């Protein structure tokens, strides 16, 4: 059996297990937002998935913002425009909730019965853009900030205005959005509500790449200019620094008044691939194998990665004395750890101080115990789930203008009931469409 066919059959088998175990949530669109100009890159309405709370959690709300990188000019935004990252028309109607979004107490003990929302990402600016004019040549709409406001207004009308507890969270570009919108979100909810924020893999740092260039700083500056984001970035930062710098959490977080928790890998795989060693800084591909699997890194590459960790810890150091801040900084090679069950809360989940991410976040949110821990240097933590990327991932396939972290896989077939985004991206990548159900049933009969 060929390698591609074997991989496809394994994918189908895993998807079959996913169909049995996944919690599928429908996708409502906020169609009323079109009149307000709150639309995706292609002009379609924004969308989110909602699973209603129950029991004691009926008035508690957890909003999880999807990740997916950014676009920094008309060309890269056009590339996204007709994908799920730029159009709600291209989004699947159902996704599975897992990890922090699970409705099962054994998988998500503190938030399982809350109202849980997955906000789809379709603007390419971490929901900060707002340009009135639409260029007729491209028909691109840079309206991310309006999208965020429209979604929140829709949820307030559906009961969030009566929230007793609320969390604004997100992963990757969504984790950055949860930082940038944290205080704004807090201001929209009842004053008596306990409101906090959570950023998973959203602490992108301003660091030079291996060639010494400031690639990510230039990219963020271009993205902010393209989307007209300056007016929607925290004024406490833009009054001191250029708007492009205010896209970096390290220049913003010390001024955030709302309690916030940061989950991040010190060796964030996306940042290693796109900030430390982007393709433009590695024209001969010397970093390619290392970026796919940290076990392939040479001693010199590991030394540079240790230096990146030092810079990352310096960037989060601005939070060391803030009593309302929580922190789970592990030494894993990973990107995004809250939406996958294996990293959020399972018997073999990553640990810091003998504590899972779910337990650390729950203790911090409810005030049971503060949590602000930083892991020792790689490879000290045997509980890490290090990402292994597909061998055909080139730097351009997971760059700052593409999806963030969506192509990461494990060395073995993952528990896909806990990896909805992985399945969605993999199915699209392998061209699986209407024949999927037939193939799944066939594979299940073969007992692969």
The coarse silhouette is: globular
Can you summarize the main beta sheet?
Answer: 8 strands, mixed
Stretches where pLDDT falls below 50 for ≥5 residues? Answer: 1-7, 9-22, 393-448
Q: What does the radius of gyration come to? A: 21 Å
Give a short overview.
With 448 residues, the protein is α/β, with parallel strands linked by helices. Helices cover 31% and strands 12% of the residues.
SSE blueprint and pairings:
Elements: H1 3-21, E1 24-26, E2 48-51, E3 60-65, H2 74-81, E4 94-96, E5 115-119, H3 144-157, E6 165-171, H4 173-180, H5 182-187, E7 194-200, H6 215-227, H7 235-238, E8 260-265, H8 269-276, H9 288-292, H10 299-316, E9 326-330, H11 341-344, H12 357-366, E10 372-374, E11 388-389, E12 408-409, H13 420-429, H14 436-446
Parallel strand pairs: 3-5, 3-6, 6-7, 7-8, 8-9, 9-10
Antiparallel strand pairs: 1-4, 2-5, 11-12
How would you characterize the overall build of this protein?
54% of the residues are buried. 31% of the residues lie in helices and 12% in strands. It has helices spanning 3-21, 74-81, 144-157, 173-180, 182-187, 215-227, 235-238, 269-276, 288-292, 299-316, 341-344, 357-366, 420-429, 436-446; strands spanning 24-26, 48-51, 60-65, 94-96, 115-119, 165-171, 194-200, 260-265, 326-330, 372-374, 388-389, 408-409. The chain has an 8-stranded mixed β-sheet. The protein has a two-stranded antiparallel ribbon with strand order 1-4. A two-stranded antiparallel sheet has the order 11-12. It has 448 residues and is α/β, with parallel strands linked by helices.
């Amino acid at each position: 059996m060929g390698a591609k066919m074997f991989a496809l059959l394994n994918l189908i088998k895993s998807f079959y297990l996913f169909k049995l175990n996944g919690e599928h949530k429908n996708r409502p669109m906020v169609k009323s937002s079109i009149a307000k100009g709150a639309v995706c890159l292609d002009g379609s309405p924004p969308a989110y998935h909602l699973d209603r709370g129950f029991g004691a959690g009926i008035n508690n709300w957890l909003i999880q913002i999807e990740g997916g990188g950014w676009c920094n000019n008309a060309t890269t935004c056009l590339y996204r425009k007709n994908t799920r990252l730029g159009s709600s028309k291209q989004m699947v109607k159902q996704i599975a909730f897992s990890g922090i979004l699970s409705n099962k107490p054994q998988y998500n003990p503190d938030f399982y019965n809350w109202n849980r929302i997955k906000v789809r990402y379709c603007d390419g600016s971490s929901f900060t853009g707002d340009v009135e004019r639409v260029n007729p040549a491209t028909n691109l709409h840079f309206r991310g900030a309006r999208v965020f406001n429209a979604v929140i207004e829709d949820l307030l009308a559906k009961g969030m205005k009566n929230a007793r507890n609320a969390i604004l969270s997100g992963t990757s570009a969504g984790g950055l959005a949860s930082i940038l919108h944290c205080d704004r979100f807090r201001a929209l909810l009842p004053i008596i509500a306990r409101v906090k924020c959570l950023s998973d893999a959203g602490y992108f740092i301003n660091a030079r790449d291996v060639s010494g260039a400031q690639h990510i700083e230039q990219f963020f500056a271009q993205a902010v200019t393209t989307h007209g984001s300056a007016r929607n970035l925290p004024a406490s930062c833009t009054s001191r620094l250029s708007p492009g710098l205010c896209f970096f959490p390290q220049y913003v977080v010390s001024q955030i008044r709302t309690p916030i928790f940061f989950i991040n890998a010190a060796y964030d795989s996306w940042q290693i691939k796109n900030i430390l060693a982007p393709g433009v800084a590695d024209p001969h591909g010397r970093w390619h194998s290392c970026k796919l699997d940290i076990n392939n890194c040479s001693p010199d590459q590991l030394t540079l990665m240790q230096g990146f960790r030092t810079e990352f810890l310096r960037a989060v150091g601005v939070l060391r004395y803030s009593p309302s801040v929580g922190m789970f900084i592990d030494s894993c090679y990973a990107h995004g750890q809250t939406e996958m069950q294996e990293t959020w809360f399972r018997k073999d989940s990553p640990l810091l101080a003998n504590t899972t991410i779910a337990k650390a976040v729950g203790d911090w949110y409810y005030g049971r115990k503060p949590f602000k821990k930083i892991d020792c240097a790689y490879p000290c933590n045997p509980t890490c789930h290090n990402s292994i990327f597909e061998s055909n991932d080139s730097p351009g396939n997971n760059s700052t203008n593409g999806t963030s972290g969506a192509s990461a896989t494990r060395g073995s077939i993952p528990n896909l009931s806990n990896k909805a985004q992985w399945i969605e991206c993999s199915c699209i990548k392998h061209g699986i469409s209407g024949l999927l159900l037939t193939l799944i049933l066939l594979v299940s009969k073969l007992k692969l």
